[in-house]
Every structure is written in C-alpha cells, then in structure tokens.
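Tokens as discussed.
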C-alpha cells in the first residue's frame, strides 16, 4: 500500500470512528456493544477497538461508560430518581458495575456524590456545570498529580 493510499485509509477510518463515537454519545442509554458498533461501520470488533484506542486514547467501552457516568452525574444532581433507576436510565444493566465504575471515575459512590453535589451547580450555566463536573479518568488524575509534584 502506498503512503497516499495508507493516508486515505486512515482518514476513512477516522471518519468511521467519529460516527461510532457520535453514536455512543447519542445512544448511550441503549444496549451497545463493540460488535454492534463495529457492524454499523463494517469493521471487525478487534479492528474497531484498536483504531478507537489509537484515535481517542481509550477503548470504546471506556468511552461509553464515561458518557453514561456523565449523564448519571447530571441525573443525580437534578432529579429525584433513585440510584438504581439512574443506573438503568443511562444504559447500565448491572448496579454493581455502575457503582464500581462511577466510584472509579468520580472518586465517590453515586449516593455520596448526590449528597455532596446537590447544590454545587446551582446558578451555573449548563455548559459550565458540565465542564466543572466532568469525571476525571484515573490516568488523567495521575497525570495531574505528577505535574503538581
């Protein structure tokens, strides 16, 4: 394959990866798995996973769970749904997995987050609240700690 053909293929793959990412952003609450996402763009699941990680620095599953946790954080702050109802509303099928992943990303369990963050974003513009409350992935937290040292 020539370098121009390889570059064209890379651009084509990036366009498909953006479609996959956009689909996860839109349909985070639906049951999504890598195989279904890959079928949607005519890629194998393995190729999609490798290319997605190269392009975005994380696996498709990790990206999807982060979107779900972000939505759950908003629901915990602004609704009276129970943690279990929120878990299922954002597309998670296991309360245990949801709680574990929420705690990994946010640093506290969902119920503690609700208690602490209840009024934290009152009066903030939604775009600012989204940025301020965005979960920090473990590797990002470690990088920030290293920069401070």
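Sequence:
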């Amino acid at each position: 394959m020539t370098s121009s053909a390889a570059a064209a293929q890379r651009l084509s793959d990036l366009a498909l990866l953006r479609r996959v990412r956009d689909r996860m952003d839109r349909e985070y609450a639906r049951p999504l798995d890598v195989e279904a996402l890959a079928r949607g763009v005519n890629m194998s699941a393995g190729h999609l996973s490798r290319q997605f990680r190269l392009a975005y620095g994380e696996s498709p599953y990790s990206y999807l769970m982060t979107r779900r946790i972000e939505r759950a954080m908003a629901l915990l702050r602004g609704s009276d749904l129970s943690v279990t109802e929120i878990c299922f509303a954002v597309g998670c099928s296991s309360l245990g997995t949801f709680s574990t992943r929420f705690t990994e990303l946010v640093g506290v369990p969902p119920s503690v987050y609700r208690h602490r963050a209840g009024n934290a974003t009152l009066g903030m513009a939604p775009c600012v609240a989204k940025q301020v409350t965005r979960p920090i992935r473990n590797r990002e937290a470690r990088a920030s700690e290293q920069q401070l040292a």
